[in-house]
Amino acid sequence: MEGILLKYLTKFTTLNEEEQQAIVKDVLIEEYKKGTMLLRQGDVPTKCFFVLKGCVRQYSIDEMGKEVTSNFYTEEQAIPNFNHHKQDKSSAYSLTCVEDCILVVGALDTQNDMYNKYS
Protein backbone atom coordinates (compact mmCIF):
# COMPACT_ATOMS: atom_id res chain seq x y z
CA MET A 1 0.00 0.00 0.00
CA GLU A 2 2.83 2.38 0.79
CA GLY A 3 4.26 1.73 -2.66
CA ILE A 4 1.18 3.25 -4.28
CA LEU A 5 1.61 6.45 -2.27
CA LEU A 6 5.35 6.61 -3.00
CA LYS A 7 4.66 6.24 -6.72
CA TYR A 8 2.20 9.14 -6.53
CA LEU A 9 4.62 11.34 -4.56
CA THR A 10 7.42 10.65 -7.04
CA LYS A 11 5.17 11.49 -9.96
CA PHE A 12 3.65 14.72 -8.64
CA THR A 13 6.10 16.28 -6.16
CA THR A 14 9.65 17.56 -6.10
CA LEU A 15 10.30 15.96 -2.72
CA ASN A 16 13.43 13.84 -2.43
CA GLU A 17 13.25 10.17 -1.43
CA GLU A 18 13.97 10.87 2.24
CA GLU A 19 11.17 13.45 2.45
CA GLN A 20 8.77 11.08 0.68
CA GLN A 21 9.60 8.26 3.11
CA ALA A 22 9.03 10.59 6.08
CA ILE A 23 5.57 11.53 4.80
CA VAL A 24 4.63 7.91 4.12
CA LYS A 25 5.62 7.01 7.71
CA ASP A 26 3.43 9.83 9.08
CA VAL A 27 0.22 9.03 7.20
CA LEU A 28 -2.34 6.31 7.75
CA ILE A 29 -3.18 4.12 4.76
CA GLU A 30 -6.21 1.85 5.14
CA GLU A 31 -8.10 -0.67 3.04
CA TYR A 32 -11.90 -0.58 2.87
CA LYS A 33 -14.23 -3.15 1.37
CA LYS A 34 -16.86 -2.34 -1.24
CA GLY A 35 -19.96 -0.97 0.50
CA THR A 36 -18.11 0.56 3.46
CA MET A 37 -19.69 3.85 4.51
CA LEU A 38 -16.93 6.35 5.29
CA LEU A 39 -19.26 9.19 6.28
CA ARG A 40 -23.00 9.34 6.89
CA GLN A 41 -25.05 12.40 5.95
CA GLY A 42 -25.69 14.43 9.11
CA ASP A 43 -22.59 13.17 10.95
CA VAL A 44 -19.71 15.50 11.76
CA PRO A 45 -16.67 14.41 9.74
CA THR A 46 -13.45 13.76 11.63
CA LYS A 47 -11.40 12.38 8.73
CA CYS A 48 -10.33 13.40 5.26
CA PHE A 49 -9.36 10.97 2.51
CA PHE A 50 -7.17 10.62 -0.56
CA VAL A 51 -7.93 7.77 -2.97
CA LEU A 52 -4.92 5.63 -3.86
CA LYS A 53 -7.02 2.82 -5.36
CA GLY A 54 -10.74 2.33 -5.87
CA CYS A 55 -13.79 4.55 -6.13
CA VAL A 56 -15.81 6.45 -3.51
CA ARG A 57 -19.32 7.78 -4.17
CA GLN A 58 -20.56 11.04 -2.65
CA TYR A 59 -24.33 11.35 -2.36
CA SER A 60 -27.12 12.82 -0.29
CA ILE A 61 -30.70 11.85 0.41
CA ASP A 62 -33.12 14.58 -0.63
CA GLU A 63 -36.43 15.60 0.97
CA MET A 64 -38.25 12.93 -1.04
CA GLY A 65 -35.94 10.17 0.24
CA LYS A 66 -34.15 9.82 -3.10
CA GLU A 67 -30.37 9.27 -3.27
CA VAL A 68 -28.71 12.02 -5.32
CA THR A 69 -25.14 11.32 -6.43
CA SER A 70 -22.99 14.45 -6.54
CA ASN A 71 -19.53 13.02 -7.19
CA PHE A 72 -17.29 10.01 -7.65
CA TYR A 73 -13.69 10.06 -6.40
CA THR A 74 -11.15 7.76 -8.02
CA GLU A 75 -7.39 7.20 -7.98
CA GLU A 76 -5.25 10.23 -7.12
CA GLN A 77 -8.19 12.37 -5.97
CA ALA A 78 -8.67 14.03 -2.60
CA ILE A 79 -12.09 13.88 -0.99
CA PRO A 80 -12.69 17.37 0.40
CA ASN A 81 -14.87 18.31 3.37
CA PHE A 82 -16.80 21.51 2.77
CA ASN A 83 -18.76 21.65 6.02
CA HIS A 84 -16.57 24.04 8.04
CA HIS A 85 -18.80 27.00 7.17
CA LYS A 86 -21.82 25.32 8.79
CA GLN A 87 -22.63 26.14 12.40
CA ASP A 88 -23.13 22.50 13.44
CA LYS A 89 -20.35 21.15 11.14
CA SER A 90 -22.56 18.26 9.99
CA SER A 91 -22.02 16.71 6.59
CA ALA A 92 -24.53 17.39 3.82
CA TYR A 93 -23.58 14.11 2.11
CA SER A 94 -22.55 10.50 2.62
CA LEU A 95 -19.41 8.78 1.32
CA THR A 96 -19.47 5.09 0.39
CA CYS A 97 -16.88 2.84 -1.26
CA VAL A 98 -18.34 1.53 -4.52
CA GLU A 99 -15.44 -0.91 -4.87
CA ASP A 100 -12.61 -2.13 -2.65
CA CYS A 101 -10.48 0.93 -1.81
CA ILE A 102 -7.07 1.88 -0.50
CA LEU A 103 -7.22 5.35 1.04
CA VAL A 104 -4.88 7.73 2.78
CA VAL A 105 -6.79 8.71 5.91
CA GLY A 106 -6.13 11.98 7.67
CA ALA A 107 -7.54 13.30 10.90
CA LEU A 108 -9.00 16.74 10.29
CA ASP A 109 -7.69 18.02 13.61
CA THR A 110 -4.08 17.15 12.68
CA GLN A 111 -4.27 18.22 9.04
CA ASN A 112 -2.72 21.64 9.72
CA ASP A 113 0.10 20.08 11.74
CA MET A 114 1.05 17.89 8.77
CA TYR A 115 0.85 20.83 6.39
CA ASN A 116 3.09 22.98 8.60
CA LYS A 117 5.57 20.14 9.10
CA TYR A 118 6.05 19.49 5.38
CA SER A 119 5.56 22.90 3.77
Description:
There is one protein chain. With 119 residues, this protein is α+β, with helices and mostly antiparallel strands. The chain has one domain (28-118): Jelly Rolls, CATH 2.60.120.10. Helices cover 24% and strands 35% of the residues. The chain is built from three helices and eight strands, in the order ααββββββββα. The strands form two sheets. A four-stranded antiparallel beta sheet has the order 1-8-3-6. Strands 2-7-4-5 form a four-stranded antiparallel beta sheet, with no helix packed on it. β4 and β5 form a beta hairpin. It is globular, with a radius of gyration of 15 Å. The mean pLDDT is 88.
Give a short overview.
This protein has 119 residues and is of the alpha+beta class.
Question: What distinguishing features does this structure have?
Answer:
119 residues, Jelly Rolls, single chain, 4-stranded antiparallel beta sheet, alpha+beta, globular
Secondary-structure element order, as H and E? Answer: HHEEEEEEEEH
Total strands: the figure is 8
CATH fold topology: Jelly Rolls
Low-confidence stretches: none
User: Biggest sheet: strands side by side, in what order?
Assistant: 1-8-3-6
- Overall structural domain count: 1
Between the first and last Cα atoms, what is the distance in angstroms? 24 Å
Tally of helical runs: 3
Radius of gyration: 15 Å
* CATH architecture descriptor name: Sandwich
User: Structural class, from secondary structure content?
Assistant: alpha+beta
Q: Based on the structure, what is the oligomeric state of the protein chains?
A: single chain
Shape label: globular
**CATH homologous superfamily heading:** Jelly Rolls
Q: Can you tell me the CATH class?
A: Mainly Beta
Largest sheet: 4 strands, antiparallel
SS strand fraction: 35-45%
Mean pLDDT: 88
Helix content: 10-25%
Pfam family, one: cNMP_binding
Organism: Neobacillus massiliamazoniensis
InterPro entries: cNMP-bd_dom, cNMP-bd_dom_sf, RmlC-like_jellyroll
Protein name: Cyclic nucleotide binding regulatory protein
